[in-house]
Amino acid sequence: MDLFNKVSRTAGKHSPLEEEIRKLPIPVNSVFLGKDGRIRPADFRETGMTITCKRCDRIAEVFPKMISRSGSVVLEAFAADQSEPVKGKRVAVLFSGGPAAGGHNVLAGLSAALGSGNTLLGIKQGPKGLLKGDLFEIKKEDIRSIINIGGFDFLGTDRTKIKTPDQFEKVRQTVVNNRLDGLVVIGGDDSNTNAAFIAEYLEARGINCSVIGVPKTIDGDMAAGKYLPISFGFDTATKIFSELVGNLNQDAASAVKYYHFVKLMGRTASKITLEVALQTKPAITLISEEISEKNMSLDSIVNYIVRIITLRRMKGINHGVILVPEGLVEFIPEMRRLIAELNKALAEYETDIADLPSLENKREFLLPHLTAESAQLMASLPPDLQEMLILDRDDHGNVKVSQIETEKLLIDKIRYRISEMKRHTDRFFGDGEEKIPATPEQVEDFKKVTLATQSHFLGYEGRSSKPTKFDAAFTFQLGLAAGSLVLAGKTGYMAALTDFDRGGRVLGLPLTGLITAEMRKGKEEFVIEKSLVELQSPSFTIFAQNRDKWAKEDFFSSPGAIQYWGPTSNQMPIIVALDQGYPYFDNFDLGEEKLVTAE
To answer: Residue range 270-282: average pLDDT?
Structure first.
């Protein structure tokens, strides 16, 4: 009976691990600690640092109040005088966009910063709930139940983008009706851009409500160099993906016959793919930003992969792992041109295309509006990919690249190329720069081998996990920073944390300084600029220096599961440590560890 009871007791997020990680102490930066050692909100002062936006003249036209108020100056937190703590404030918080590990700890940090003298309200179902005014009070017992636990399920989330006058007016009504002094938006680049627009709208109408953003996305593209090395959720997701890729590396070497093609989430930036490659050392890794920089065509990418597979086969290795970034198709020059031309045509002829009854009719209508090269490429693509490019767009007018099976497209083209090599060995093997050097015996051996493949897409598996120790600490500090910014009366800022190797440095970044112009649905829109892999960065340089060795032999490693105790428990992302110039990546320091009791 005891065993039956124990199984029942573990339901509802009460597994043995979940019970223990709720008790884990969390590092707390000294600016959030009072003289008595208890957690307190910090205050903020201006630094000598500014973030200058691109197209500042246009940004100033769109955000005159925020530009005037912040002066694009970065704020830095300091320990506040707690003789007269701020009381009576009502602060609401929402999740926006896809989940990322650690979101619940942002709520815990907010609650700790606000303390018992202020009220924290949760907004259900993200921006949609904000428009509806669907709010509830978050109690201390709620915080105790969700601290260090993954997911966004406590509040829920959605992807509604607030952009119409009617929507902004509904936000204003929610703020006024609920007497909100602060609104905290936890999300990625689009969500934090929304926060900037909301802050501008409320300020222009004399509504005294602090609007603060918190950087969230597993992609890692919500970053600002030395001010914000990475967004939360990235570390957890890449550790999960690295464990799975490490397992596939081991399986490939054990079964000695499979090439595992693994597409990794990350629509625009290849940061996840780069981090997983540094963690696991696979045979082949594609980095979208490099492919774009080198202007590599789809055929040249296929040739690159086939050459490595063939050279490995010459050494008797007929297995390995190939990492493919989710957004690769948009970085291949001819695909990028095709998508841009389709975007323009779809926006210009939206009504005409909507009236056409079938995909074939729509395709025939669009082809004359494309260049000859793009029309030829379009016609050569599989029908399901053509349909996705024409019909299946997200709310921002973008192709849903996560649903494009890029890994399978590569597999098909690689299979055809290898079949072609077997039929025409004289064209591919022999002397010459482009040909593969091989003995007649090796060529015959190559012709006998079948390419066995498996395809995978890793993305959703890493978004709602229990956060790593790093993400648990990072998000708690971001919550403390966001709550402190609200209590300090700041608006139009994003909470940020840097200097992960020496206690952490808590900053407030003016959102308008991060915004740039981007073409969406054929129109100019203002959004926070995405942070991509920089090919001159230390992290990419280390990868580029080692990938040839990893391609020639099995040098893979398997980092294993997320650890809360043990040798890798205090590890931060490798690319962050390398690119920020930290002396190590396996010992982050974000302050003094405290057991957070939500009291």
So the answer is: 98
The tokens for 75 are: 């704020």
pLDDT per position as a tens digit, 38-57: 999 999 999 989 987 777 77
Task: Determine the average pLDDT of the residues in 248-256.
Answer: 94
- Reading the block at residue 319, the tokens are 């297995």
State how far the Cα of 583 lies from the Cα of 589, in Å rounded to an integer: 12
Residue 214 binned pLDDT confidence (cut-offs 50, 70, 90) = very high
Identify which of 329, 317, 469, 485 has the alpha carbon closest to the alpha carbon of residue 398: 329
- Between CA 366 and CA 483 the distance in angstroms is 50
Contacts 24+ apart (CB under 8 A), 544-548: 546/281, 547/277, 547/284, 547/285
- Run of H or E residues at 448: helix 440-448
Phi and psi of 32, rounded to 5°? -100, 10
561 Cβ contact partners less than 8 Å away, ≥ 6 residues apart: 243
H or E element, residue 21: helix 16-21
Concerning whether 579 is annotated as a catalytic residue, the answer is no
Where do the H-state alpha helices sit in 315-382?
333-348, 350-354, 359-366, 372-380
Nearest to 202 by CA among 183, 222, 221: 183
C-alpha 486/C-alpha 109 separation (Å) is: 13
Taking alpha carbons only, the member of 64, 184, 201 closest to residue 484 is 184
Over residues 572-582, mean pLDDT: 95
Catalytic residue among 181, 189, 190, 219: 219
pLDDT at site 25: 92
DSSP 195-207: HHHHHHHHHHTT-
Q: Which residues contact 426 (CB under 8 A, 6 or more apart)?
A: none
448-481 per-position pLDDT tens digit = 889 999 999 999 999 999 999 999 999 999 999 9
Residue closest to 284 by CA, chosen among 273, 292, 268: 273
CA angle 332, 336, 342 (to 5 degrees): 150
Q: What is the C-alpha separation between 276 and 285, in angstroms, rounded?
A: 9
CA nearest neighbour of 369 among 390, 355, 385, 388: 390
Residues 6+ apart with CB under 8 A from 209: 175, 180, 181, 182, 183, 202, 491
Rg of the chain (C-alpha set): 26
Taking phi first (over 0 means left), then psi (-120 to 50 degrees means alpha), and beta for anything else, what does residue 125 get?
left
- The C-alpha atoms of residue 393 and residue 404 are separated, in whole angstroms, by 12
Residue with tokens 């691990």: 17
The closest of 470, 570, 590, 460 to 102, measured between CA atoms, is 470
d(CA 384, CA 399): 13
- Burial label for 546, CB within 10 Å (0-12, 13-18, 19+), is middle
Q: For residue 70, what are its two tokens?
A: 């912040």
Report the distance separating Cα 337 and Cα 343, nearest Å: 10
For residue 220, the tally of other CB atoms under 10 A from its CB is 28
Contact call for residues 555 and 94 (beta carbons, < 8 A): no
